[in-house]
Amino acid sequence: VHFPDVERVEWLNKVLVQAWPYFGTIMEKTFKEVLEPKIRAKSIHLKTCTFTKIHFGEKCPRINGIKAYTKEIDRRQVILDLQICYIGDCEIHMDISKFNLGVKGVQLYGTLRLILEPLLTDAPFIGAVTLFFMQKPHLEINWAGMSNLLDVPGINVMSDSLIQDYIAARLVLPNRITVPLKKNMNIAQLRFPIPHGVIRVHLLEAENLVQKDNFLGAIRGKSDPYALLRVGTVQYRSKTVSRDLNPIWNETFEFVVHEVPGQDLEVDLYDEDPDKDDFMGSLLINLVDIMNDRTVDEWFPLSKTTSGHLHLKLEWLSLVNDQEKLHEDKKGLSTAILIVYLDSAFNLPKNHFEYSNGECGAKKIKNNKYLKKTEREPSSFALLTVGSKTQKSKTCNFSKDPTWGQAFTFFVHSAHSQSLHVEIKDKDRDSALGTSVVCLSHLLKDPNMTLDQRFQLDHSSSDSFVKMKLVLRALNVEEPDPQRVKAGVSASKQGPVHVMEKDGNQQKFVSPPKSEVSKVPPLSKDTAVLESQAKKDSSEDVDTNDSSAAPVASETIAGLNETESEHNPEHRPLSALHTRAAVVPTLPVVEELRLAPSVASLGSLPSSCFELSSSNLDLHNGTEMPLGEIQLTVRYASIRQSLVVLVNGCRNLVPSSNRGVDPYVRIYLLPDRRWTSRKKTSVKKKTLNPQYDEKFEFFESLEDVKKRTLDVAVKNSRPFISQEKKELGKVRIDLSQEDLIKGFAQW
């Protein structure tokens, strides 16, 4: 049985259905006993708030699928992604001083991540549960009451988005809810882990965008494109390029990445208009591949539109604890990231102070009403500033010892000269309750570039402090692994490069800059020797321009197999494969493709190649008369969410008539046999060894692709009324048996 990444959990949904009425009873009790008093205490206007009806309905949330991560992560944790869908018939009504307000039905769907960590050796075996949404969940609320004032379209949308923002501020990354399951568990590190890294996005240019502006409904004008870039809740907007369908932006944006795998880079293009901006296409990029590749510089085709490509350069910056990496960037880009854990403050003054010549002087208080107001404890929030960026904490009401427990991140250009400014303010008054300035150069004195302490507040009481933990990390672009072949999307104009380049007597194997083949296992010494031997032989025997090169190559292979088996008899079947891959003259990237992962899985005999046959057997074992061979490179591009099939070429086709054949290749991704979804190469005239080097993509999820079969047929392009046989041969590849992320290339 083949299990896709996302598993269905019908048993869990059955448990939820059964337990939902009991959960509803608990929630009704919580609303009356916990939430109602809290709402009443918030404001004098809410003192009369009463829940008149609380009913959680019959419909319970559904979990459409769960994806579990155990390999890519720390050994002491388990990560689960739950696809949650709630279309509820709950009804909640409340009265606030003569007004009746209520909710009658809620829709919510999104991906909720659960992290179980740390795993323990004693009960309860899990230290804490952390949960958050990866992206803003989709929320729709059906309001009731207040004469349905909230159903007015504008107000309804506004209230939904306000509540969505409220949920996002608490539940969407980087915000997390952490529930300790074991006593005395320190959850600060779980609530605010150091981010995974930073993605630097260079938005360079686009081409062939769709025209959106039209005048008088007929004359097409040029659009004014701009881009929105998003990771999690952080969004940036590019400048607008006016009247250009091939805009050049050359802008750079930086995002903090908190969760990998999980977070994606989303890019949406819009045409700016006075009334409503038109959508021009979008792009979703998986950040796991960028993290592994380090740098990707590609033209990406836009989805959800008819044409257009976007040129992005993406750099993954690791966070390193190394002061030598902190040299200033000449282009003004960030060199470090500062993470501030704002914990709490102590003994904030009740009376606020004014700045007078740098000293604090108490304001003269004249009337008694004001005196009463100043005697109550302050409702304080903090403003944190680094450079030109200021972030605001939540407000803690009526406390001289507020506890915020929040984390903030700032990009730092020069750690030696910049500083962090903290200002604590009372929400009811303008002036500050205290300030503190921390030079980031203090962090450089600590070997871990970390400060965790109480900082004295200036312009405040003598015993007022703010407690913070500051962590500085340098941003570092690491060199990519030379063994790894990038998963970046190949520029659509690039196909495989043939073995053409000659340097004196030696022939080099040239690979394209972004190869289509995935990571290759390192070779043993024997195979390395063998490979060099293969190169020598191929440079002597194989003429790449000659279509009759294939038989020569197979003789070379036979000879090499004998020499190899004398050296090391154990490696014989494997080495046969290595040489086979190393000497085939039209292989796209010989250097990288010493052993395609699926070659071993398809059997180690030479006859296990994809031989074209007139019958429908899946992979032929040489019992029939073979009709030639086709060379394919197949892999799944996870950045693009597409299956990439590269048709390299065919050899030794069997002619169906004396006139010669004009072959082309037709591909279906079964069971889809619709004419619209078939892929077809160009026609090559009068040849039995056609060379195509054409790339095709099927935009499907990896789970779906794993259930499909690739149906590849080589056909003869013949006149419509001709009696000649059309099909020259076909092959079917069961994709559930292949490692598509690594990919394979094979004859």
Automatic annotation (TrEMBL):
Transmembrane segments: none annotated. GO terms for biological process: endoplasmic reticulum-plasma membrane tethering; lipid transport. Residues 508-525 have a biased composition (Low complexity). Residues 173-300, 318-459, 626-747 form the C2 domain. One of its GO terms (cellular component) is plasma membrane. InterPro entries: C2_dom, C2_domain_sf, C2C_KIAA1228, Ext_Synaptotagmin_C2A, Ext_Synaptotagmin_C2B, Extended_Synaptotagmin, SMP_LBD, Synaptotagmin_SMP. SMART domains: C2. Keywords: Calcium, Cell membrane, Endoplasmic reticulum, Lipid transport, Lipid-binding, Membrane, Metal-binding, Repeat, Transmembrane, Transmembrane helix, Transport. Belongs to the extended synaptotagmin family. This is Extended synaptotagmin-3. It comes from Chauna torquata (Southern screamer). The gene is Esyt3.
